[in-house]
Amino acid sequence: MNQTISQAARLKGTVALPADKSIAHRAALFAALSDGRSIITNYPDSADPRSTLACLRQLGVEIDEDEPGILAVQGAGLEGLRKPKAPLDCGNSGTTMRLIAGILAGQSFATTLTGDASLSRRPMARIADPLRRMNAVVTLEDGHAPIKIAGGQQLQGIEYELPVPSAQVKSCVLLAGLYAEGETTVVETIPSRDHTERMLGLDIFEMGGARYLTVQQGRRIPARTWTVPRDFSAAAFLLVAGSIVPDGEVYLPGVGLNPSRSALLDVLRVMGADFKVEYEREEGGEPLADLKVRPAALHGVSVSGALIPNLIDEIPVLAVAAACAEGRTEIRDAAELRVKETDRIDAMVKNLRALGTDVEEFEDGLAITGGKPLTGATVDSFDDHRIAMATGVAALAASGKTTITNAEVARVSFPGFWEVLERLSKGE
Ligand code: S3P
Question: How confident is the model at residue 41 (pLDDT cuts 50, 70, 90)?
């Protein structure tokens, strides 16, 4: 599908954002492994969290959804999953594949995990390595999916220092740790999103600047009610859109503001963005607030180091803010972007250049000289939801019309995104 977007003079309205993808995956997985019936409210309709549900159903977990977004999950307990009849298709979802692999390594039966073309290009040795150290038998194809997990091995607890700051790898190892003899500890020297340890209530120790997360074999997961907050990573697109379009106000109620996810707010504040964080509260152990954003004159900023994992998914749209900001923005230490749903450095360099921005590319990031007027063009989504949406936001500030090809991919995390942009630009 092609999506054509016109330059917008004003963005006005309220948006009920989709629920948080990272938290939704985990709520579904933890409910499936719990002892008893859990309820998950506000489960998103986005394709990625739906891939997790499909895999869990193939593993014999009963999940009812009598009302859209309200799931009743009958927990199978740690030992109650059943051998699936076919390979588990994780679609486009790296979180589904990497987290479920940790659980499957501890089962008595063999499984195969597959994904779409993009997921089949993403690195999986980063989970196979620690799982093998735990005694799992894992086979990859040249470092990639399909992933074959033999099952039937008694896993052993390990201490594992993450070579890359990755919440997916961390979570994979901790989930395998539920099945591993003794204790499994993951050591993080650069913190990544902390939903798994928060939601499982794991022991966390800090020493010498590192975080030690520990799980014991057989740790039970109680059944409970999970409420999934609205996705900060989805809010990011509208925070930038509301900043760069010259008039209006965008209101985003109930957005998750977990500090390991919300560094974009700090960066936008430094860039001069005009937003308010109102009615800060906590729901289900996660902080949330209502956000209100108005247009502002932005200026360039440098972003690198330990901040990067806390805004890794927001960098494509941060690059758009930078294109509309006066001066130079440099984003470094972000080589992980090259192994996301697409090479996001390459994709944003191409799309921003196509719209007329001066961009310099580095192996681990990009530098943008902002402030030059953007001009509409035809660009591609690179089959990546965040590239599609970030480019869509840039299009709001580009003269004339911009067409994004393969734009339907936005539904991976934000179904209805294009309709939201259209509604906001009409000021409804
Ligand atoms: C996620 C972790 C991050 C992030 C992804 C979701 C998660 O990936 O980019 O969108 O839910 O754990 P990495 O673990 O590869 O950094």
Answer: very high
